[in-house]
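Re-running Phytase A to confirm reproducibility after the cluster update. Everything else is unchanged from the original entry.
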Amino acid sequence: MDFRRWVLVGVGTCVALLPGNYYPSNMVDNQNWGAYSPYLPVAEYVAPPERCEITQLQRHGARDPTAGPAAKIAIAVSKLQNVSTYGDSSLDFIRNFTLDLGTNDLVPFGAEAYARYRELVSADNVPFVRASSSDRVVMSATNWTYGFSAASGLRFNPILSVIFDESANDTLRNSCDNIGSSDNQTDTWIAIYGQPIVQRLNSAIPGANLSSTDVYDLMALCAFESVATDSISDWCGLFDDEEWRDFEYEMDLDKYYSTGYGQPLGPVEGVGYINELIARLTSRPVNDTTQSNSTLDQSSVTFPLNRTIYADFSHDDQLIAIYSAMGLFKQTTPLDPTNPSSSGSNRTWITSQLVPFSARMVVEKMQCQYSSQDSEYIRVLVNDAVQPLNFCAGVTEDGICGLPAFVRSQSYSTSGGNGDWQRCFQ
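Result of re-run:
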């Protein structure tokens, strides 16, 4: 039997499918940087069971800070450099520190899918690649295509075929006008965990007058400089393990209450993409009334249904929305902005595991001999970890669920978000 295969590579802070361990080896223990964490697989990739054959499959890479955070980081550093003396010699590096990070630029992490999925491609069937139009997202997509091409010995050379205009309909970018903000929750938590750090640093650096927000910006600087230089930044040593866990919880809150389950209009941001995913899985035209671009999705040139590998590149907030629309990482208790432990020890909403730099979601479509007849099944992996898909009727212990059952489980998306999309513009 001729088994076709298809790969759709994620959506996140620029999505990139990295089948190897593409992260700095000296940073593997620093996974409390939330969405600024270097990529680390949550689990080792597990191939489908022997009785299954993959028939189809479905973030940007690490980057410098965007313009707003970069300006805030510069202010915090300036406060520290303008004081006359430091009370601790370990802080002397600050005096001669030069802030030379760019803004938005991708740092040099590669992206390659060929090693894992090379059997899916042929000269007539190379990956179909799309990206949202932000420069860093486009760069991630082209870096991915270059990596794929190089890994194949230049035999297979995918190109970036579609770039979505972020000012228009775009399933790879948030576009709900009335969506709320996570500021109340994140500001509350920053004020709580940041205050003891403020007191400690201001005591050691008299006259700096740091605020809790400055503390957050300096912690972000640790992550950005580390991924930019491929080594641990001196700024990281200013904070202990517990403080880093508190920093990550701020990012957990941010994603949960921006486009995650804590935001009433968060999941609807992922509906258009889920409907495109269903179209690819079922080889049927896209049926969507939300943010999809109907002109592009109705064309076999810009939305083909006969490819074996699809790669989409986007932002972390959009990937969070897609997780939420699909039903992944649901929390039994909402995240408390005053107490990380209130959600219990089984909390799965951990940003560094959901959307680190180069995060990816992969959907594999396969044929499995679970019965007398071959049938189509899917499984979903997030950062290489197979998802349990508890919302999908009949799912196996291997995380494999029948394609018809998966489509039925996505009624929130197939219904257009149960009216939530209209609420975005009322």
